[in-house]
Automatic annotation (TrEMBL):
Gene encoding the protein: KIFAP3
Ranges in coiled-coil conformation: none
Pfam families, per database record: KAP (PF05804)
A Gene Ontology molecular function term of the record: kinesin binding
ARM repeats, residue ranges: 574-618
GO cellular component: axoneme; ciliary transition zone; kinesin II complex
Organism: Sparus aurata
Protein name listed in UniProt: Kinesin-associated protein 3a
GO biological process, one term: cilium organization
SUPFAM superfamilies listed in its UniProt record: ARM repeat
Length: 770
C-alpha cells in the first residue's frame, strides 16, 4: 500500500486560537509487480491549537516552530502562516465564544476517584460495553474508558454507530444514577460530549437524556437541602461528642459536595447545549429550570456558577423566563458575584444583568441590591467597563435612581473618561449615561465641580459635539449654584446662534440659553451684541426650519421676555404678529401652543408690550378661544394671561367676562334657547320674541337675575336674606351655591320638584375670578 499527502491549504479556526490545515490523502494498493490496483482519495483536516498565542507572542518565531513541527505544511508557506498568526493575535475573542470554550469536552478531566492508568482504545469498545453489565465499580471503569474515547471528537462518529454501547450507557444511567454519583457523572459526561455537536442532539434526545438530567438535578438539590438541615442541627451544640460528629459530618459533606457540583455542572452543560432548540428549552422551562438555576446561585464553586449564569443569560431573552427570575429574586443572588476574581464569571454575570436591566421592576431590584456602587467600581476595569456602563445607563433612565449616583465614585470616573477622549469620538454609552445623570440636580453639582463645566464647554464648542451640548443643556436647567456657573459662558453660547451652524447644534445652544433664568443676566445686551433678534424673527416663520428649532426659538423668546427692555425690543421688531401666525400654523401642536401663550403671558407684564398685544393684535381673541382647550397647562397659562389683560383693559375685560359667563352657564343657556314661546314662559323673551340669550350684552340685563322668591335684587346682587335662608336650609333642594357664592341650577341628576320655569338666577362671573 502506498500513501501520498497532497498539497495543503491553511485557514484560521472560526472560534479558537488555532490554525486549520486542509489536505488530501491518496491511498493506493499496489499489485505484485508494483502497479496500482485500487486507489482512494480522502479530504482531511488537522487543527493546530496555539495555546501559547497571546498579545505579546513573537509571531515570526511561532510561525517557524509550527512549520518545523507540522510535516503537512511546506516551508514555502512560512510567510502565510505568520500572517495567519498575526490575524489570530489581533482578533478579539467574544465572551460567547469563551463560554463555549469553557464547556467544551476537552476541558473536562476525570476527577479524583475515577482516574484510570490504562488508556482506552476504540478497537476495544466492545470490552468496555461488557463492563457495563458488571457491578458498580466495573460499570464506572467501563464508563470512564468510553468517556476517554468520547472526549476525542474524532471518535464520536464511530461511537454513534455502536447502538449497543449507547443503549447500554443510557440504560445504566437511567437505572443506577442514584446508586453512584461517580457513575452518573461519568455517563453524563459521555452524552455531554455528543451534545456539544448539533448533529448529535437527535441521538441524545432519542435516549431521553435531557429529561433524565432534569430529574438528577432536582434530586441533587433536595439532597443538598437535607445536608444543610442535618449540619445545622448539630452546629450550635455544646456537647463535645456532638461537636466531633459535626466536624466529621462536615468533612464528609464537603467531599460529597465536590462530587455533587461536578455532576450538576456537566448535567447543566448538557442541557445548555440541548437548549439550542427553543422547543427543547420550552420543555425545560415547564419543568422549572429557572427556579433550579437560581437556587444553585447560592453555591461557591465558580465553574458551576459560570455554567448556571450562562444558562440564565440564554434563558433571559424570553419574557416568561425573565419574569421567573424576577419572582425568584435572582438579581439579589447575582449581586453577590460582583465583583469577583473569576473574570469570565464576572463578565457573564454582567451580560445577564444587562439583559434583565431592560425591565423596570428588575432595575429596581438592582438598586435595592446595592448594584450601583458595585457597577461604578467596575468602571475602572477596562474589560468590564462597557457592560457596566450599559447597565448603569438603564438604571439612570429612571428618575428615582439618578440621585444615587452622586454618592458613588461613578461621576468622577465618567468625567475622567470624557476628558481622556480628547478630540476622539466619545463612546455613545459613555455620553448617554452622562446626559441622563446631568438631568439630576445632585449629579449635576458633582459634574460641575472644579472645572467640569468649563471643560465640557470647551469640548462642545471646539468639536461642535451635539451630545456634549445636550449634556450641558441638561446641566443648565437646575436652579441654584449650577445655573450661576453659566454666566461665564453666555457669550460663547450666543455666538453659536447663526445660520452657518448645524441646526441640531443650534437647537441645543438655544435650549441651554433658554434655561438661563438668571436675574443678573442682561438679556438686552446679549440680543444686541450677537444680533439675535433678526435670527429669532426669521426662524418664527412656519417652515423656515425644523419644528424642533422653531420651538426652541419660541422658548428662548419666552425666557428673554422677562426683561422689560428685551420685551420692548422684540415687540418693535414685529415678533408678536409672527408668533400669532405661527400659532395659527401649529394650533394642533400642544407644545407650540403652550409656549407661544407663555410668551404672551410674559409680555403682558410690561406696559409697552402689553399695549401692543392688546391694541394692535388679535392675540387676546386667540387666547379667549384657547381658554377652554383640552390641555390643562394651556388652559392655566391662558387664564392667567387673560386675567392680566382684563385688569388693564376694560373693553377686553368685558369680553373675557362674558365668555367665562357663557362657558360656565352653558348648560342653562342651551336649555333656555331651546324653550318655545308657547310654553308659558314669556319672561325669557322680549316683546318681539327675541331671546335675550342671543343678545351680546347679556350681562347688562339684570332682569335675568330675578327669581320668583326675590332672592336676587334688581341690581344683580345677592340679598342679605339669601345667606340667612341658605344657612338655615330654607332654600330647599333647588337652592344651593356654587364655589363663587352664587346660586346655581340643580345638576342633571338632581331630583328637584321645582319647574325650570321658576329656577334660580344665572351665575354672575366676576372678572377677577380666574
Amino acid at each position: 500500500m502506498k500513501r501520498k499527502d497532497e498539497s495543503c491549504t491553511l485557514d484560521v479556526h472560526p472560534t479558537e486560537k488555532a490554525l486549520v490545515v486542509h489536505y488530501e490523502v491518496e491511498a493506493t494498493i499496489l499489485g505484485e509487480l508494483g502497479e496500482a490496483m485500487i486507489g482512494e482519495r480522502k479530504e482531511c483536516q488537522k487543527i493546530i491549537r496555539l495555546k501559547s498565542l497571546n498579545a505579546h507572542t513573537d509571531t515570526s518565531s511561532l510561525a517557524r516552530k509550527v512549520v518545523e513541527e507540522c510535516r503537512l505544511i511546506h516551508p514555502s508557506k512560512l510567510r502565510e502562516v505568520e500572517q495567519l498568526l498575526f490575524y489570530l493575535q489581533k482578533r478579539k475573542d467574544s465572551n460567547d465564544n469563551q463560554e463555549k470554550k469553557r464547556i467544551s469536552p476537552r476541558d473536562f478531566t476525570p476527577y479524583a476517584g475515577v482516574e484510570l492508568d490504562e488508556e482506552a482504545s476504540i478497537n476495544r469498545i466492545d470490552e468496555y460495553v461488557e463492563l457495563l453489565y458488571e457491578d458498580v465499580q466495573e460499570k464506572i471503569r467501563g464508563a470512564t474508558l468510553i468517556f476517554q474515547l468520547a472526549r476525542n471528537p474524532d471518535n464520536l462518529e464511530e461511537l454513534i454507530q455502536n447502538e449497543a454501547a449507547l443503549g447500554a450507557l443510557a440504560r445504566v444511567l437511567r437505572e443506577d444514577w442514584k446508586q453512584s454519583v461517580d457513575l452518573a457523572t461519568t455517563i453524563t459526561y459521555i452524552f455531554f460530549c455528543f451534545s456539544s455537536f448539533s448533529q448529535f442532539h437527535g441521538l441524545v434526545t432519542h435516549f431521553k437524556i435531557g429529561a433524565l438530567c432534569m430529574n438528577i438535578i432536582e434530586h441533587e438539590l433536595k439532597r443538598y437541602d437535607l445536608w444543610q438541615d442535618e449540619l445545622g442541627e448539630d452546629k450550635f451544640s455544646d456537647n463535645q461528642n456532638l461537636k466531633k460528629e459535626h466536624e466529621k459530618s462536615l468533612r464528609k459533606y464537603q467531599s460529597l459536595l465536590i462530587k455533587q457540583e461536578q455532576l450538576l455542572r456537566v448535567a447543566l452543560c448538557l442541557l445548555l447545549n440541548l437548549a439550542e432548540d427553543t422547543r427543547t428549552e420550552l420543555k425545560m422551562r415547564n419543568k422549572n429550570i429557572v427556579h433550579m438555576l437560581v437556587k444553585i446561585l447560592d453555591r461557591e464553586d465558580e465553574e458551576l456558577l459560570l455554567v448556571v449564569v450562562s444558562f440564565l443569560k440564554k434563558l433571559s431573552i424570553f419574557l416568561e423566563n425573565k419574569n421567573d427570575m424576577a419572582e425568584t429574586l435572582a438579581v439579589e443572588k447575582l449581586a453577590r458575584l460582583l465583583p469577583c476574581e473569576h473574570e469570565e464569571l464576572q463578565s457573564t454575570t454582567l451580560r445577564l444583568l444587562l439583559n434583565l436591566s431592560f425591565d423596570t421592576s428588575l432595575r429596581s431590584q438592582m438598586v435595592q441590591a446595592a448594584l450601583v456602587p458595585k457597577l461604578s467600581s467596575l468602571l475602572a476595569d477596562e474589560a468590564q467597563r462597557q457592560l457596566s456602563m450599559c447597565i448603569l445607563y438603564h438604571i439612570s433612565m429612571d428618575d428615582r435612581f439618578k440621585s444615587m449616583f452622586a454618592d458613588t465614585d461613578c461621576i468622577p470616573q465618567l468625567m475622567r473618561m470624557v476628558f481622556d477622549c480628547g478630540e476622539e469620538k466619545m463612546d455613545v454609552e459613555l455620553i448617554s449615561l452622562c446626559i441622563n445623570l446631568a438631568a439630576n440636580k445632585s449629579d449635576a453639582q458633582v459634574i460641575c465641580e472644579g472645572n467640569g463645566l468649563k471643560m465640557l464647554m470647551k469640548r462642545a464648542l471646539k468639536l461642535k459635539d451635539v451630545l456634549v451640548m445636550k449634556m450641558i443643556r441638561n446641566l443648565s436647567q437646575h436652579n441654584g449654584p449650577t445655573k450661576s456657573l453659566f454666566l461665564d459662558h453666555v457669550g460663547d453660547l450666543a455666538a453659536q446662534i447663526t445660520e452657518d451652524e448645524a441646526e441640531e447644534f443650534v437647537i441645543e445652544c438655544l435650549g441651554t440659553l433658554a434655561n438661563l433664568t438668571i436675574p443678573d443676566l442682561d438679556w438686552a445686551l446679549v440680543l444686541k451684541e450677537y444680533k439675535l433678534v433678526p435670527y429669532l424673527k426669521d426662524r418664527l416663520k412656519p417652515g423656515s426650519a425644523e419644528d424642533d428649532l422653531i420651538l426652541e426659538v419660541v422658548i428662548m423668546i419666552g425666557t428673554v421676555s422677562v426683561d422689560d427692555s428685551c420685551a420692548a425690543m422684540l415687540a418693535k421688531s414685529g415678533i408678536i404678529p409672527a408668533l400669532i401666525e405661527l400659532l395659527n400654523a401649529q394650533q394642533e401642536d400642544d407644545e407650540f401652543v403652550c409656549q407661544i401663550v407663555y410668551v404672551f403671558y410674559q409680555m403682558v407684564f410690561h406696559k409697552a408690550t402689553r399695549d401692543v398685544i392688546v391694541k394692535e393684535t388679535q392675540a387676546p381673541a386667540y387666547l379667549i378661544d384657547l381658554m377652554h382647550d383640552n390641555n390643562a397647562e394651556i388652559r392655566k397659562v391662558c387664564n392667567n394671561t387673560l386675567d392680566i389683560i382684563a385688569e388693564y383693559d376694560e373693553e377686553w375685560g368685558k369680553k373675557i367676562q362674558t365668555e367665562k359667563f357663557r362657558w360656565y352657564n352653558g348648560q342653562w343657556l342651551e336649555m333656555v334657547e331651546n324653550r318655545q314661546m308657547d310654553e308659558g314662559e314669556p319672561f325669557l323673551f322680549g316683546e318681539d320674541a327675541e331671546s335675550f340669550i342671543g343678545n351680546g350684552e347679556i350681562l347688562e340685563r339684570p332682569d335675568l337675575f330675578y327669581s320668583p322668591d326675590g332672592i336676587i335684587s334688581a341690581d344683580g346682587a345677592l340679598s342679605p336674606d339669601f345667606y340667612t335662608d341658605f344657612q338655615s336650609g330654607e332654600l330647599g333642594q333647588t337652592g344651593f351655591m356654587n364655589r363663587y357664592g352664587a346660586p346655581c341650577l340643580p345638576g342633571p341628576g338632581s331630583k328637584s320638584t321645582v319647574s325650570f320655569a321658576f329656577c334660580p338666577a344665572l351665575i354672575f362671573w366676576d372678572a377677577n375670578i380666574s
